[in-house]
């Protein structure tokens, strides 16, 4: 069989129905999906369903412990914490996916170029990636935010900036493995342009690892945004964001006011664990 | 009794007699008498005759020999008297350094390194006589030459001292003259009835240093105070021991130890674990549990610390004063004080005249929440549909919460506030118009520290040529009134000017000042004698445990 | 690895660090506010600020400042802090020590625990214990440190009172007491790293159990537990070293969240404060130190693996 007649490999994405079946059987995936779905519903519909406005203050009732009137108690200016927890899903679930998407687009493009082009382009890009990764990501993010000033948009940009190299690295490795396959040689012999090869031939075949990477990165995006909000550089008041709530109130733990931070902490933990379980399930399903 | 009073009055000047008149006519309380008397340097004989008994020297009841451990705020930079600008550094300076005059927590002025002071007829020249027999810790004897050198250094632009912002327009280099070893004369740039406050402990950079001072304060903390330096370690702490050659009563404690903290919670834990005896400053928001703890003593000093909400008077929707008044009317001031400060604050009436100042006129009616009137004003101004305003401010203590509360209150009358809360450095920027979010913003909240007299808060933030005029308030009548107030030597003129200023500011409302909060210190149950200075300094020479 | 390769690695690392310093310096110029004003406070007189800026030399062009700083650094002088007017090096040293102490405490707790868990999971592969350890560990790696920190503070510090909440102790406290205060701050890090190390130890253990040299060792008559100890554990250690080395960048400079929560003055907080205060010398020095730690730890890790990996070692014989 000559090279010209070698079959073009089936993109992995065409094996979907089997994968979906596998996913639906994995308990980790289902639990993760459930958690994410719950918070997504809160993000979209929550603010209209909650008993109190997440923003209305009630100074006479500040720092009240959980009770029948306020299930999760009230914060330092009397806002109902239960309402703020439900409403708090929206800020994090708007910024994190957007940042991840941006990082994916940029990182995939960079990774494709680096992996396919090789040579000095690859060298320069890899060195740049290494410089950025030499510092802890949170420090890079902080320094940029100190310069730009904190706001949700800036946070999104910074997260995208910091995650792009990581995604680029993964995509680059995937591309390098693909380049060794037969169909690549066939495509080059057919004189297809570089852009065509990168985006039409390679990309569909490396979608599975990208998909896994994206889901994992989503978890880390939530992780990093929450941490930045905690440090005061992320989402800004009066947003009911959970990281911000903890930043505003963790000094009160010592005085016994545990409800001002405990619920926000558990909400954050449940969201990140849910996303991670989802990513794990996806990875197992795609790799077998 | 009457003889004594008559004799004293005859010996006194016109100014002192005026204050005596006010007191005898009942227009001045005993406390205010003491404050004014101290300001103009009234002789003790007259004070004694007026007040019926000589001002009692506070008897020290504590046992000597204790070691006092303090949880203090970490100084943010080098301990250099010229450039210190934050509370941690201020606290360190006053442990071994002393001022010409001490401003006590009740705003009265007490002699420290100066024994007495007198103005000339119009208050443009003040003559101070200095305390004899004072030695610096390194043995150098304190004389007028040291005062001249210290003051010249403080008001010299080339030295770049932090005190320049206070001394500007008041004193310049060469204005301090030595008359003899124990007499100094200050020739001011303009008459100033409150000048003693400018050389008191409130001007926290103005500790007296030897004339040959070479910039090495952090190594030896060389001053004239009741304690001398034992050890200073940056970012860790400092310790001091009793100064045996002090000019006054020897300090009661043998030793004081300061540990530097960056957060309230750790300080509270340290006090509860009996690792420290005093927490130098607590905020109500951070120390809710502590305030209700029966085992902890809270020293509560009313102060003039406040937050100024400025509104742009020269452009935008807030240029119409009806809108500004409407916004000021949406605030539930008692509610704010209860909710944010658990009652440990005093209501503000939208002017820098805090209730604690003797010159504040208490007859000016206090503004209260009135939504009906506010909505009327908004309609009259043509804003029935409401307006959109951006509020820019800094992330400091309770200010973000205050901003949220303001946002909610304004929403009731259709004023839709968008909040922009920044880091302190980003908010202040370069502190020049055009390069500072603070000075360029439509509406903002700024923190103003305590001062013993309202001069600075009346001038820089609100005068037409003021450097801190974020409200862009240009009102010639106001400028004239403030000039009158500043120059006034006698109480009557001061009060009169104050009343007019307060009324004008209520009319124009360029700023909202809703509360003045108290200064709080927490100590263990058996600690006594901790003296707190008006600008939040801590004096421990009378402190004891048990 | 041989000397030539080592030299090449070190040179590449030095270039990376130089690039890093230039990038950070350039970025620092973009920070808002100015140095003199940061030190004197926002309300200081403009003349005072100008005078101070002149004294500190911050009114010179950026390139001059950078080259000046670089020159000093190559002579071993990290410069003077703008805020504290005293040498930067002691601050960096002190903060680095504190970060290392925290990282060491975390390592001391997590390495034995995670390896043991990974080995245990491998020995019971497929069982519910295995799934619990694997999935549980993995879930924990994604929980932000301040979240797990808050929950741990509430449970262990406030309700059960088993551990002290404050990470700092008065000077003069004994080493054991200081260590005790570091346990609670180290726990979020432990939870973060547990999953990775356990998974890698488990995978390494599984590989080793099935490998040739294990079978050979068993055939030679060496008892099962001895096989475990000598050959298999050695191989499980290898991936752990890799993980710890790659996490060094995080462990040394990335602890800023834990440091903030526990008010612990490590190098992460130092960098953040320096950025806020526009204290360039401190900021630059801090970042370089963290970058250098990462780069160095990678080199050391490679060396260690070269020594420990039996396949590499054997090929040299």
What's the short story on this structure?
Chain B is of the alpha+beta class and 546 residues long. Helices cover 31% and strands 22% of the residues of chain B.
Walk me through the topology:
The complex is a heterotrimer of chains A (288), B (546) and C (317).
Chain A (H helix, E strand, L loop, with lengths): L15 H10 L1 H23 L31 H7 L1 H29 L1 H15 L3 H12 L3 H28 L2 H8 L4 H12 L1 H25 L10 H8 L9 H29 L1
Helix pairs in contact in A: 1-12, 2-4, 2-12, 4-5, 4-7, 4-10, 5-7, 6-7, 7-10, 10-11, 10-12, 11-12
Chain B lengths: L1 H10 L2 H11 L5 H11 L3 H8 L15 E7 L13 H10 L4 E3 L5 E3 L2 E6 L5 E6 L13 H12 L8 H4 L8 E5 L2 E5 L29 H4 L6 E7 L3 E6 L12 E7 L2 H9 L5 E5 L5 H4 L5 E15 L9 H8 L4 H9 L3 E3 L23 H10 L6 E8 L4 H13 L3 E8 L1 H5 L8 H4 L2 E6 L6 H5 L16 H12 L3 H18 L2 E2 L2 E9 L3 E2 L2 E2 L5 E2 L4 E2 L1
Parallel strand pairs in B: 1-10, 1-11, 14-15, 14-16
Antiparallel strand pairs in B: 2-3, 4-5, 5-7, 6-7, 8-9, 9-10, 11-18, 12-16, 12-17, 12-18, 13-18, 19-22, 20-21
Chain C lengths: L2 H27 L5 H6 L5 H11 L5 H13 L13 H36 L4 H14 L3 H15 L15 H36 L1 H8 L4 H30 L2 H7 L4 H11 L2 H29 L1 H7 L1
């Amino acid at each position: 069989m000559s090279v010209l007649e070698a079959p073009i490999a089936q993109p992995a994405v065409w094996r979907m129905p089997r994968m979906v079946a596998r996913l639906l059987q994995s308990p980790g995936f289902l639990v993760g999906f459930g958690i994410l779905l719950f918070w997504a519903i809160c993000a979209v519909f929550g603010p209209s369903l909650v008993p109190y406005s997440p923003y209305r203050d009630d100074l006479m009732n500040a720092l009240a412990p959980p009770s029948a009137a306020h299930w999760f108690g009230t914060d330092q200016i009397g806002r109902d914490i239960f309402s703020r927890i439900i409403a708090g899903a929206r800020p994090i679930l708007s910024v994190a996916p957007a940042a991840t998407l941006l990082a994916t687009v940029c990182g995939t493009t960079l990774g494709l170029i680096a992996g396919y082009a090789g040579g000095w382009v690859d060298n320069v890009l890899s060195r740049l990636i290494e410089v950025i990764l030499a510092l802890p990501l949170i420090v890079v993010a902080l320094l940029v935010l100190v310069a730009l000033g904190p706001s949700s948009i800036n946070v999104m940009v910074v997260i995208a900036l910091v995650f792009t190299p990581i995604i680029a690295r993964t995509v680059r490795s995937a591309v390098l493995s693909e380049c060794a396959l037969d169909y690549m040689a066939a495509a080059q012999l057919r004189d297809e342009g570089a852009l065509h090869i990168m985006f039409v031939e390679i990309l569909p075949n490396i979608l599975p690892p990208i998909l896994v990477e994206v889901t994992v990165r989503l978890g880390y995006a939530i992780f990093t945004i929450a941490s930045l909000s905690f440090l005061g550089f992320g989402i800004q008041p009066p947003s009911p964001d959970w990281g911000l709530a903890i930043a505003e109130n963790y000094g009160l733990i010592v005085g016994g006011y545990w409800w001002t931070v405990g619920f926000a902490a558990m909400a954050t933990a449940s969201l990140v664990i849910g996303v991670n379980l989802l990513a794990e399930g996806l990875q197992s399903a795609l790799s077998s | 009794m009457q003889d004594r009073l008559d004799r004293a009055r005859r010996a006194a000047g016109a100014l002192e007699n005026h204050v005596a008149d006010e007191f005898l006519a009942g227009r001045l309380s005993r406390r205010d008498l003491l404050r004014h008397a101290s300001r103009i340097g009234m002789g003790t004989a007259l004070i004694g005759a007026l007040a019926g008994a000589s001002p009692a020297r506070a008897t020290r009841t504590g046992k000597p020999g204790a070691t006092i451990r303090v949880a203090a705020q970490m100084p943010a930079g080098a301990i250099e008297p010229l450039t210190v600008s934050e509370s941690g550094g201020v606290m360190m300076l006053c442990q071994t350094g002393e001022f010409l005059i001490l401003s006590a927590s009740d705003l009265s002025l007490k002699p420290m390194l100066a024994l007495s002071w007198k103005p000339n007829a119009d208050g443009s020249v003040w003559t101070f006589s200095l305390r004899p027999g004072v030695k610096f810790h390194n043995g150098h004897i304190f004389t007028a030459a040291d005062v001249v050198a210290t003051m010249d250094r403080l008001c010299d632009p080339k030295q770049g001292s932090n005190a320049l912002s206070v001394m500007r327009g008041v004193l310049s280099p060469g204005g301090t003259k030595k008359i003899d070893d124990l007499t100094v004369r200050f020739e001011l740039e303009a008459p100033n009835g409150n000048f003693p406050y400018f050389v008191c402990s409130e001007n926290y950079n103005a500790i007296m240093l030897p004339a040959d001072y070479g910039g090495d304060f952090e190594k030896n903390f060389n001053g004239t105070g009741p304690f001398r330096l034992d050890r200073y370690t940056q970012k860790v702490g400092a310790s001091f021991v009793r100064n045996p050659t002090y000019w006054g009563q020897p300090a009661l404690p043998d030793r004081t130890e300061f540990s530097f903290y960056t957060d309230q919670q750790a300080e509270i834990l340290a006090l509860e674990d009996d690792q420290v005896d005093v927490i130098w400053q607590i905020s109500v928001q951070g120390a809710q549990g502590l305030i209700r703890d029966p085992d902890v003593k809270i020293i509560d000093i009313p102060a003039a610390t406040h937050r100024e909400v400025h509104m742009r008077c020269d452009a935008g929707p807030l240029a119409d004063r009806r809108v500004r008044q409407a916004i000021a009317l949406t605030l539930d001031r008692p509610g704010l004080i209860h909710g944010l400060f658990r009652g440990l604050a005093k209501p503000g009436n939208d002017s820098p005249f805090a209730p604690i100042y003797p010159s504040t006129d208490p007859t000016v009616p206090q503004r209260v929440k009135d939504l009906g009137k506010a909505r009327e004003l908004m309609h009259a101004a043509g804003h029935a549909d409401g307006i959109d305003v951006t509020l820019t401010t800094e992330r400091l203590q309770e200010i973000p919460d205050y901003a949220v509360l303001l946002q909610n209150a304004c929403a009731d009358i259709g004023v839709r506030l968008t909040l922009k809360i920044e880091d302190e450095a980003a908010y202040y920027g370069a502190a020049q118009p055009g390069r500072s979010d603070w000075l360029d913003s439509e509406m903002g909240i700024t923190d103003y520290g305590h001062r013993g007299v309202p001069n600075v808060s009346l001038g820089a933030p609100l005068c037409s040529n003021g450097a801190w005029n974020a409200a862009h308030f240009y009102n010639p009548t106001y400028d004239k009134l403030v000039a009158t107030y500043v120059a006034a030597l006698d109480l009557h003129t001061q009060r009169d000017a104050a009343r007019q200023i307060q009324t004008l500011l209520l009319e124009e409302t360029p700023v909202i000042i809703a509360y003045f909060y108290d200064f709080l210190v927490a100590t263990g149950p058996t600690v006594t004698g901790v003296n707190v200075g008006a600008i939040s300094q801590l004096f421990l020479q009378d402190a004891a445990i048990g | 690895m041989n000397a030539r390769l080592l030299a090449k690695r070190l040179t590449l690392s030095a270039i990376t660090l130089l690039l890093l310093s230039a990038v950070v310096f350039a970025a620092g110029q973009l920070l808002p506010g100015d140095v003199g004003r940061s030190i004197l406070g926002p309300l200081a007189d403009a003349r005072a600020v100008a005078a101070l800026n002149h004294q500190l030399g911050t009114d010179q062009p950026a390139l001059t400042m950078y080259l000046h700083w670089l020159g000093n650094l190559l002579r071993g002088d990290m410069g003077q802090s703008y805020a504290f007017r005293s040498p930067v090096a002691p601050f960096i040293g002190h903060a680095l020590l504190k970060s290392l102490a925290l990282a060491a405490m975390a390592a001391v707790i997590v390495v034995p625990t995670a390896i043991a868990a990974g080995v245990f999971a491998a020995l019971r592969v497929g069982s519910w214990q295995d799934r619990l350890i694997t999935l549980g560990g993995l879930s924990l790696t994604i929980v932000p440190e301040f979240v797990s920190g808050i929950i741990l503070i509430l449970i262990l510090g406030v309700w059960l009172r088993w551990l002290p909440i404050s990470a700092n102790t008065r000077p003069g406290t004994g080493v054991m007491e200081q260590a005790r205060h570091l346990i609670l701050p180290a726990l979020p890090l432990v939870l973060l790293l547990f999953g990775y190390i356990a998974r890698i130890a488990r995978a390494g253990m599984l590989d080793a159990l099935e490998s040739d040299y294990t079978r050979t060792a068993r055939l030679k008559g060496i008892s099962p537990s001895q096989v475990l100890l000598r050959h298999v554990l050695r191989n499980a250690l290898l991936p752990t070293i890799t993980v710890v080395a790659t996490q060094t960048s995080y462990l040394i400079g990335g602890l800023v969240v834990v440091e903030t929560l526990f008010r612990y003055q490590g190098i992460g907080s130092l960098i953040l404060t320096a950025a806020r205060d526009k204290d360039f010398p401190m900021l630059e020095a801090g970042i370089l130190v963290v970058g250098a730690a990462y780069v160095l730890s990678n080199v050391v890790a490679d060396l260690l693996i070269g020594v420990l990996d039996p396949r590499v070692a054997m090929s040299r014989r």
